[in-house]
Design brief:
By secondary structure, the protein is an alpha/beta fold. The chain has a domain of about 170 residues: Alpha-Beta Barrel (TIM Barrel), CATH 3.20.20. It contains eleven helices and eight strands. The protein has an eight-stranded parallel beta barrel, surrounded by eight helices. Helix 10 links the parallel strand 7 and strand 8. It is globular, with a radius of gyration of 17 Å. The two termini are about 15 Å apart.
Length: about 250
């Protein structure tokens, strides 16, 4: 078993005062307890400096919400993986469904960004997941196989990547996949990773579940086979809720 990873995606939420209060609250809990999970927060880019300053030297990791595939260049508004690493980040989200939908990112784009993250020394949290239409039509596993196959870097090291399964229809909707649904997809993802990396290496890769994860359903979801943590949205914006998800 791998150590659970609980990642908080703040999305486009927060402020400097909010970051200070939330991170301060998390740190006070992390420092007081010997927890069995690792915590990472992914704030908006404008708040990374504030959050990194607060988290420096602690057990709380920080990640970006996105990165560009290039090291530098004329890419106004974008941030390179190298810069994220340079300022102190350890993780970066790639391929989140909101990036795929709002910005038209393809599996190839996600692969390029994840490759850049690895080269920079970051751990990419590579997001995958089907839409409601794809699930209703019975294409969930087909979509997942395509995304896993085409989004992972060619030279990915199994010890340096994280996958996050987030059914698009469950993100911010209040809907949550059933434990059986989650088990089916997570077991399928694990076997895809086994085919690529071998059983021993594949078993060391964290596969997170995301999609309306909250304290009331976290214990049940985290107990599912091959669920190695959670990618948390709204509940990561409240100290008590985020903490309760990871501490079981």
């Amino acid at each position: 078993m791998v150590r659970k990873l609980i990642a908080g995606n703040w999305k486009m939420n927060g402020s400097v005062s909010f970051a200070s209060e939330l991170v301060g609250g998390l740190l006070s809990k992390i420092e007081q307890q010997d927890v069995s999970a690792d915590f990472v927060v992914c704030p908006p880019a404008a708040l990374l400096g504030s959050v990194l300053s607060l988290a420096k030297g602690t057990k709380l990791s920080v990640g970006g919400q996105d990165c560009h595939a290039n090291v530098s260049g004329a890419h106004t508004g974008d941030t390179s993986a190298e810069l994220l690493k340079d300022i102190g980040c350890g993780y970066v989200l790639t391929g989140h469904s909101e990036r795929r939908t709002d910005h038209g990112e393809t599996d190839s784009d996600v692969k390029a960004k994840s490759t850049a993250a690895l080269k920079a020394g970051l751990t990419p949290i590579i997001c995958i997941g089907e839409t409601e239409g794809e699930r209703v039509s019975g294409n969930t596993l087909k979509v997942i196989e395509q995304q896993v196959t085409n989004s992972l870097p060619d030279d990915a090291d199994s010890s340096a990547i994280v996958l996050a399964y987030e059914p698009v229809w469950a993100i911010g909707t209040g809907k949550t996949a059933t434990p059986d649904d989650v088990a089916e997809v997570h077991n399928f993802i694990r076997e895809l990773l086994v085919s690529r990396f071998g059983r021993e290496a594949a078993n060391k890769i964290n596969i997170l579940y995301g999609g309306s994860v909250k304290p009331s359903n976290a214990a049940e979801l985290l107990a599912v086979s091959n669920v190695d943590g959670a990618l948390v949205g709204g509940a990561s914006l409240k100290v008590e809720d985020f903490w309760a998800i990871g501490v079981r």
